[in-house]
Amino acid sequence: MGKGERDGSNEYNDYQPGSLNTTDQLIKDLKNIDIVFHIGDLTYSNGYLSQWDQFTSQIEPIASTVPYMVGSGNHERDWPDTGSFYARTDSGGECGVPAETMFYFPAENRAKFWYRADYGMFRFCIADTEHDWREGTEQYQFIERCLASVDRKTQPWLIFMAHRVLGYSTNDWYGQEGTFEEPMGRESLQKLWQKYKVDLAFYGHVHNYERSCPIYESQCVNNDKDHYSGTFKGTIHVVVGGAGSHLSPFSSLVPKWSLVRDYDFGFVKLTASDHSSLLFEYKKSSTGQVYDSFNISRDYRDVLACTHDSCEPTTSAG
Predict the structure, then answer these.
(1) Which residues form the Purple acid phosphatase C-terminal domain (predicted)?
(2) Beta-carbon neighbour count of residue 278 at 10 Å?
(3) Which of 78, 96, 240, 248 suits 279 as a labelling partner, its CA being 20 to 30 A distant?
(4) pLDDT tens-digit profile of 18-66?
(5) Would you list the DSSP string of 219-231?
(6) CB count, 10 Å around CB of 92?
(7) Cα(140)–Cα(135) distance, rounded to whole angstroms?
(8) Residue 76: in which H helix or E strand, if any?
């Protein structure tokens, strides 16, 4: 999202033209919001501490009223030879320190920006894509513990979040790369999403909006678009990276799993009205109007039911 100028002066490179609109829409609807998640690329301060002051002032009406939960992105963490997974200079030398210091998040080790957050009927598992997430790593073990330990009877809605797109995106660069994901992104994780029946996975990093069908191993497992009910079949992956920074172009290729794409600024709102009904709304930052929506109706017995690769294999012998 980043930050913007209200006094008519120029933001550096006009890098975050949609930021104020997104902030203002959240403030306008704040009485209907319980918690906010901003998963990476928070301020684009790039090492200038005054930019953090500007950002925290901008979000103060939100963060002083409801929990403002943050994650780590490349513009918070990445710097060569500091332990980040990517040896880039995107953080401007911040190395994650301002983000770790200014915001509270319930991580076991604040230098490792992965954590679990429980709120009402939701379990949120937040990953840190600037540290290794692949199978066998400390973070992979955390992700599985987070997904496995939820009681779906009391917290039926299981949400995975990460900054870089570990799932699916038709961003132009991902299209050129060939697999429509952050390299090595979903190879280790998709079996966990399926096994533990993750309802939704959210990503930033790519500055646009895109929603997939319920998907497993690059194949749609449900052909519906507006309403999903009954047994879980696959996770819906959502790129919602258009909160403010300059927009990212899509690939000219449109796989069958890509249901909705929007080259514009926006944000997502989730509303759980009860233990079996979830409303998803993607809203335009410019107007607050809903551009894309669907709902999920799923009972506890539907969560328990087996689907492809979601239950342990069994063998019977006579």
Answers:
(1) 234-293
(2) 23
(3) 248
(4) 999 999 999 999 999 999 999 999 999 989 998 999 999 999 999 999 9
(5) EES---SSEEESS
(6) 16
(7) 6
(8) helix 74-77
What span, in angstroms and rounded, lies between the C-alpha atoms of 146 and 148? 6
Amino acid at 183: P
Residues 110, 83: contact at Cβ < 8 Å?
A: no
| Residue labelled with tokens 């990093």 | 205
* Helices 19-28, 49-63: inter-axial angle, 10-degree rounding: 20
Amino acid at 172: D
Q: Give the helix, strand, coil percentages of the chain, each rounded to 5.
A: 20, 25, 55
Looking at residues 103-126, what average pLDDT do you find?
Answer: 94
Q: Report in angstroms the alpha-carbon separations of 313 from 197, 205, 308, 309.
A: 16, 36, 10, 8
The pair of three-digit structure tokens given for residue 310, joined into one six-digit string: 């979601």
- State pLDDT tens for residues 213-230: 999 999 999 999 999 999
pLDDT confidence bin for 231, thresholds 50/70/90: very high
How many angstroms separate the CA atoms of 213 and 224, rounded? 8
Any idea of the CA torsion for 181, 292, 115, 245, to the nearest 10 degrees?
70
CB 36 within 8 A of CB 268: no
Distance CA 75, CA 73 (A): 5
Distance CA 296, CA 272 (A): 10
Cα–Cα dist 299/304, whole Å = 9
Q: Pull the structure tokens for residue 157.
A: 């809605």
pTM of the model: 0.95
Average pLDDT, the chain: 94
Q: Which residue has the tokens 């902030």?
A: 23
